[in-house]
Design a protein that fits this description.
The complex is a heterodimer of chains A (333) and B (305).
Chain A lengths: L2 H15 L3 E5 L16 H4 L4 E3 L4 H13 L3 E5 L10 H11 L11 E7 L24 E4 L6 H11 L3 E6 H4 L14 E5 L1 H4 E5 L8 E4 L5 H15 L3 E6 L1 E3 L7 H7 L2 E8 L4 H13 L8 E5 L8 H7 L3 H11 L2
Parallel strand pairs in A: 1-2, 1-3, 3-4, 4-6, 5-6, 9-10, 9-12, 12-13
Antiparallel strand pairs in A: 5-11, 7-8, 8-10
Chain B lengths: L4 H7 L3 H22 L15 H6 L8 E4 L4 H8 L2 H9 L16 E2 L2 E3 L6 H15 L5 E6 L6 H12 L4 E7 L2 E2 L2 E2 H4 L4 H7 L3 E5 L4 H16 L5 E6 L15 H9 L7 H4 L1 H22 L9
Parallel strand pairs in B: 1-3, 1-4, 4-5, 5-9, 8-9
Antiparallel strand pairs in B: 2-3, 6-7
The chains are: A alpha/beta (333), B alpha/beta (305).
GO molecular function (chain B): magnesium ion binding; oxidoreductase activity, acting on the aldehyde or oxo group of donors, disulfide as acceptor
Protein name (chain B): Pyruvate dehydrogenase E1 component alpha subunit
Pfam families (chain B): E1_dh
Chain lengths: 333, 305
């Protein structure tokens, strides 16, 4: 099953299971079913629960916040995650603050889905990975879709959290198959660690045996796997890949034994350079494991650049598997 | 009815309405006094001169209705809950604070009453609440207070568009006091609020009166229509802010301030003209003193959870 189908199926189940959940966004109605078809079929099956909206990101997220405030639950689709900047006020100043600024915990079950990332030639305003701008906001959780996850469970976890959640969905993943039965490909296996909020661990034969740990969110999974394959076959370097379901809050402590064993850690993400999620993770790793690291944590991210539309220029800016290979090689000279 | 207010207050106003008006007036005055003594943290925005708006609206609202307030919301809160202790404790960070002292003057949640500190932010949220009410609790409405300056925010128009499109039970009350912090409305707004509301197909009413009975009679049927599914209603009160924006930041000329005072519902001479007014005025003043003394004697507030 492709990731897009898996997300779509999960949303169908969420709406079927709980009539208080509403899905809002632009162009969601059938037969179109959303720009990436993640909401396809929902409006036909649950007409009262799906609301197609005007082009008003700030307004839509505010309406969703109001629904959640009044006792409902809301899932918003931002057509391209780039547009979530228009809803920054509602996310940062209203929804995330409301859960605690009134002096007592307030439940605000709200998910803002953000199709993100480049690789499709959509150009500078339709290709960004804006996760880093939402890291460290009190009362706001940031998730990223991975091909290893049970997406029904993922939506359930976010709604149960009772605070606003952003869900980044790498658009490239939509067309890829989800991984099943613990098998990533012909070389690598995976399992899910309950620690640190369900981190997927991808390994070659024995998770205890690795030369290096790569921490990367779900949109990076295939590039990380390709890098791991190259490193193994060409350099005989074995990597352990950790894919967190939740990027923030993120506590590296439960993963420390795994990181300590290798002493070599790389963090890979598609956000452009500067003030990144990876830098936050690296800081945590350095604080806990300084002295047991062979080298400073290596950061892999896109260039500090707008994301060009032309394929060859876009490729130069965005993280490729070769960048991960290079980073790991530098960790293990 | 602009100039006949004194008479109305002394003769027609119920004790309940007059008591509430005076409670808000003396609460706000006391707050500025406490500010002067350095007892109020940060900033606070009083509604001096605008008290009659929430007092007029109070009986038009039921328990199931949501009220969204803004930064100038003490009167909105007191008109809904008549709880000066909780509000003052919130502003002073003392035990019994409505929001544990975390929210302060501008960020208050109590039951179906909520204020946010960002201009225009509450309108889309109020539309979302109205959407929920429309489907889950028909007959209830969401009312959002905004100032004239808030009409500069895009969120207002996104919300009005959706509210009109979906025929939401939303009432937007604009307290147009002619000045946004220090910027006169004439320097920050093109066209009119009425034209903007009508452009979205919203029903609109301009209220020049400060006569509480007249305001209620005029608004009651419009509120009912909104409850029945007629879609959003925008009400604009032409009102006057007597005090500064927050504490000592009044840039208006003496003449402008005098003009605002000329429109004040609180007739200083009324205290001598009407025995009832004089008595209730003194009672409200004394009560607020008691509230302030009691709240100031409380320990500092603690935050839940």
């Amino acid at each position: 099953m492709r990731v897009a189908e898996s997300l779509n199926r999960a949303l169908h189940e969420v709406l079927a299971d709980d009539s208080s959940v509403r899905v809002l966004g632009e162009d969601l109605l059938d037969p179109y079913g959303g720009a990436f078809k993640i909401t396809k079929g929902l409006s036909s099956r649950f007409p009262g629960q799906v609301l197609a909206t005007p082009i008003s990101e700030n307004g839509i997220v505010g309406v969703a916040g109001g629904l959640a405030l009044a006792g409902g639950k809301a899932i918003v689709e931002i057509m391209f995650s780039d547009f979530v900047t228009l809803a920054f006020d509602q996310i940062v100043n209203f929804a995330s603050k409301s859960v605690s600024m009134y002096g007592r915990p307030l439940r605000l079950p709200l998910i803002v889905r953000c199709p993100s990332g480049g690789g499709r030639g959509y150009g500078p305003t339709h290709s960004q990975s804006l996760q880093k701008h939402f890291i460290g906001v009190p009362g706001l959780a940031v998730y990223e879709v991975s091909p290893f996850d049970d997406h029904r469970e993922l939506f359930g976890e976010m709604l149960a959290r009772g605070e606003p959640c952003l869900l980044f969905e790498d658009k490239i993943l939509y067309t890829r198959q989800i991984f099943e039965d613990g098998i990533a490909d012909d070389l690598f296996r995976y399992d899910v660690l309950p620690q640190a909020g369900q981190v997927t661990r991808v390994y070659l034969e024995d998770p205890e045996q690795a030369d290096c740990v790569i921490i990367a969110p779900g949109g990076m999974a295939h590039r990380a796997l390709a890098a791991m394959r190259t490193l193994l076959l060409e350099r005989e370097i074995t990597c352990l890949l950790l894919v967190p379901r939740r990027l923030y809050p993120f506590d590296v402590a439960p993963l420390s034994p795994l990181l300590e064993r290798t002493g070599a850690v790389a963090v890979a993400e598609e956000s452009t350079a500067g003030g990144t999620w990876g830098a936050e993770v690296a800081q945590q790793v350095h604080s806990r494991l300084w002295g047991r690291l062979r080298r400073p944590v290596s950061l892999v991210h896109s260039a500090a650049s707008v994301i060009p539309a032309a394929a060859h220029l876009e490729r130069d800016v965005l993280v490729q598997d070769t960048a991960i290979v290079r980073a790991v090689q530098e960790l293990l000279p | 009815m602009q100039e006949g207010l004194l008479e109305k207050i002394t003769e027609d106003l119920s004790d309940d309405d007059l008591g509430l008006l005076l409670l808000i007036r003396h609460f706000e005055r006391k707050l500025l006094d406490l500010f002067g003594q350095g007892l109020v943290q940060g900033t606070t925005h009083t509604c001096l001169g605008q008290e009659y708006v929430p007092v007029a609206l109070a009986p038009l609202l039921g328990e199931r209705d949501f009220v969204f307030s803004n930064h100038r919301g003490h009167g909105h809160y007191l008109a809904r809950f008549r709880d000066p202790y909780g509000l003052l404790a919130e502003i002073l960070g003392r035990e019994g604070a409505v929001c544990g002292g975390v929210g302060g003057s501008q960020h208050i949640l109590s039951g179906r009453y909520l204020s946010t500190g960002i201009q225009g932010e509450s309108l889309p949220v109020a539309a979302g609440v109205a959407l929920h009410l429309r489907d889950a609790e028909p007959g209830a409405l969401a009312l959002a207070y905004v100032g004239d300056g808030t009409w500069g925010q895009g969120a207002v128009y996104e919300a009005l568009n959706m509210a009109a499109l979906w025929r939401l039970p939303l009432v937007v009350v604009t307290e147009n006091n002619g000045i946004a912090q220090t910027t006169p409305t004439s320097a920050q707004m093109a066209g009119t609020i009425g034209d903007r509301a009508r452009a979205f197909g919203c029903r609109f009413l301009h209220v020049g009166s400060r006569d509480i009975g007249e305001i209620r009679d005029g608004l009651r049927p419009l509120f009912e229509r909104t409850r029945e599914g007629a879609g959003p209603l925008v009400v604009e009160f032409a009102t006057h802010r007597l005090g500064p924006h927050s504490k000592g930041d009044d840039t208006r000329t003496a003449e402008e301030i005098r003009r605002a005072r000329d429109h004040d519902w609180y007739p200083r001479e009324g205290a001598t003209v009407s025995p009832r007014f004089a008595r209730m005025d003194a009672e409200a003043r004394a009560f607020v003193e008691v509230v302030a003394g009691e709240v100031l004697g409380r320990p500092l507030s603690a935050r839940e959870g």
